[in-house]
Write a structure and sequence with these properties.
- By secondary structure, this protein is an all-alpha fold.
- It has one domain (5-53).
- The protein has helices spanning 5-18, 26-40, 42-55.
- Helix 1 runs antiparallel to helix 2 (26-40).
Length: 60
């Protein structure tokens, strides 16, 4: 079962918090910017996730 776009975004937020103590860490920066970009582009991300579900491609 593919998670919803909101669940994926919540997981990115959770992962970002794991690196929150070092705002210069590349892991934090990558997760932070991915989280922000996706949250600003939720309509496009929902379409992407829906297309991935329909094609049987879960993003892997």
């Amino acid at each position: 079962m593919t998670p919803s776009p909101e669940q994926i975004l919540a997981k990115l937020y959770e992962l970002r918090k794991e690196y929150d103590d070092d705002k210069e860490d590349l892991h934090y920066l990558a997760l932070h910017h991915a989280f922000l970009f996706i949250s600003y582009q939720m309509d496009a991300f929902r379409k992407y996730v829906d297309n991935a579900k329909q094609s049987g491609n879960n993003g892997a």
